[in-house]
Amino acid sequence: MTALETIQKRHSVRTYDRRPVSEGIRNRLQQLLQEHTTGPFGTPVRFRLLDLDSVSPLEFKRLGTYGMIRGAHLFIVGAVKDWQGSQVDLGYCLEKIILEATAMGLGTCWLGGTFRRSHFARWMQLAEDELLPAITPVGHPAEKKSVSEALVRTGARSSRRKPWSALFFTGDGKTPLTEDEAGGYRNALEAVRLGPSASNLQPWRIIKDRDGCYRLYLEENRAFNRGLGKIRLQHLDIGIAMSHFELVAREQCIDGWWNPFAPPVYYAGLEHLALWETGEGEENGNKTG
Question: pLDDT by residue (tens digit) across 58-76?
């Protein structure tokens, strides 16, 4: 599958069967956790693959997935220092791992607010200056969804995405960018549009500025994004958007990288996150892969 096809295929899986994940696939997952450890902001990301198969039903219940996840016993857990951009980096890295898992036929599900962090933090041996923003189960999807999964998917409007006109704009920050105007970046932008986000709020905005450069912004819902203390779910979402854009652009031979340290261009109500750099200037050290 192409990167865009994998993005189109990926969906949240909340019900898993009990088939064990093969040793070969586990080894590949472990390899991915070691490969994807740095995002655009350059902060280190630490992952661990937890096998909770031997955990008692009572202990598993204490993990606090609130009945959202059934049948899973493998979890990928991510931790970062509480630094600027670190949660964007975690979202960027974990989404790349999730897409690789999708290509292997595995199911996953982003969990940011529906698990009990203290229990996973203990298994992760979380340091005092680290955050545990998100986890995902990983395993074989069950053939039949549970009733609770169907209800959650319907309530979250998981299959719905905002149109281009609500997400991508020209240099005035108000006029919607058309697919024709996007040119070679059409598929990269479509990959962003299809990305998962907390409560499906899709907080990313991309503006093709007057110089023809693509800039990524956060339209933050402050009450939602800051409702978990230091955890910023919508910054995870931004990392997901960055990974989607980059993967599809590079697959189409558009060589570029996200530069979060570029001078910002401001628009009302939007937080500037990064500029998509192309061509010369690769030696600036901000390129990530």
Answer: 666 666 664 688 889 999 9
